[in-house]
Amino acid sequence: MTDKTTETGAPSELTPKVAWLLAATFVVAVAGLIYELIAATISSYLLGDSIRQFSFVIGVFLSAMGMGAWVSRFVGDALAGFVRAQMALGVIGGALGPLLFFTYAFYGAVGLPLYGGLIAIGVLSGMEIPLISRVMKEIGAAEFRFENVLTADYIGALAASLAFPLLIVPNLPLMAASIAFGILNLLVAGLSLYLFRDRIGRGLWLAWAGFLLAAIAAFGLSGRMVSAVDARLFQDEVIFSETTPYQSIIITRFDERYRLFLDHSIQFDSLDEHRYHEMLVHPSMGLVPDARNVLVLGGGDGMAVREVLRHDGVERVVLVDLDPRVTELFATNPDLVALNGGSLQDERVEIVNADAWVWAAEGHGDEVFDIIIADLPDPKSIALSKLYSVEFYSMLMERLSGVGLFVTQAGSPTFASEAFWITEATLAATRNPMAPGQGMETLAYQVYLPSFGNWGFVMAGPGVPDDARVPDLPEGLRFLNGDVWRGAQAFGEDQLPAGEVPVNTIQGHPLVAAYQRGWDFWFR
């Protein structure tokens, strides 16, 4: 039976082959964008600075697609070229995730496989629309040609951009997701081989079957591959690993030692976390008499809240943390609950899962806090740097009582000294609600952590007490005492700022560049 045609020779109805080519356009658009998102996400996990990584990945990928569109003109047989491109995408795209993780785990770098893989995938993806359009023309489907192909492609891109954060990341490890979409490309190639079997020789069938079986086997082994990478990246047993819509969460254990990693960056080591959290919480708590209402930003592990609750006068603690999975784990897992002393189960604690910036901007009525504690991730990207900006601090100071204090972790005054003092300068430049036209008073201090090295904090408020005053400390602390507090305020000459220090704002982020320069100088 032949297709019905119009007077121009174009099909008068949507034939199975034309329908498949449009559907294939949608599917390959989804797969191509997913590879791009996987590459950007993995590189931001492993290398940090998500804005830089996503910008580089998108730029390289799109330019490679343009190159692929140009290269497609040299493909003699459009149909066979499309099938071969899908097979190559299935192999290269499917291998991208495992390759990036294994390369980083064994060699500590991902540049060559990342950009080499992106260029290859981009070129192959860029060939798809020109080749499909040519196949459409060859089978006499002029009325379904270019506009419909582009529409299917753009709809596929939208579907991928929605599915990646909502469906794929929460349910599939990135390594398995990469392989799964490689299988999808191979299935597109297989169905195209079947539908156009009258036009394509049998030589491609054997290669296609071999690639598909290998990809399915790899998907079945993806769990073991994740475990192998984790064993290489983390020296201790991985007892929990999950990727949420917000971040990668990994918890390791060796005997009674636990460590938390978010996006592959260590957040605490149970051997010395008490040093960090005691220094973060108790100086400000001990300098504000009768602190009742406390706000903690970040700190979803409940360790800072644990220290806050040591103070008898505390009546209410609001904990604002972005990821509900983190607070759920540290509120319900028996081993983790033991670490934070069940602080997240305390009836005085209110857990709010929200972005700290959004929460602060919403206002929340006239609520005022005696103490505000910022236990937020390091400002390694612009998205995080905004939480160390004068605009963010200004919103928080509006919620601080007249005798209250704000304190933030501020990174290492040794490894990233410039970034540390930018944070201090930003707080000092923040508008003082109690004295319009003036800034905040600040006090910087530091502590040595065996698992992190030297680490610093900045306290700020309308009136920071004299630095010689020893805070009123609760009983039972494992590290902090009066002598430690006095020594913590002393900085070496090589830790002090060398000149004028800029203020971090959301219009310009000198903090991010200073942070990267500091850590790169010491460790790259």
Class by alpha and beta content: alpha/beta
Give me the side-by-side strand order of the main sheet. 7-6-5-8-9-11-10
Q: How far is the first residue's CA from the last residue's CA? A: 67 Å
Number of domains: 3
The rough form would be described as: elongated
CATH architecture of the largest domain: 3-Layer(aba) Sandwich
Q: List the uncertain runs.
A: 1-12
A few lines on this structure:
This protein is of the alpha/beta class.
Indicate the topology:
Layout (H helix, E strand, L loop, with lengths): L15 H32 L2 H22 L6 H30 L3 H28 L7 H26 L2 H22 L7 H18 L1 H12 L3 E7 L4 E7 L2 E6 L2 E5 L3 H15 L5 E6 L4 H6 L7 E6 L2 H9 L1 H7 L8 E5 L2 H7 L6 E7 L6 H4 L4 H8 L2 E10 L7 H13 L11 E9 L3 E9 L20 H7 L21 H14 L1
Helix pairs in contact: 1-2, 1-3, 1-4, 1-5, 1-6, 2-4, 3-4, 3-6, 3-7, 3-8, 6-7, 11-12, 16-18
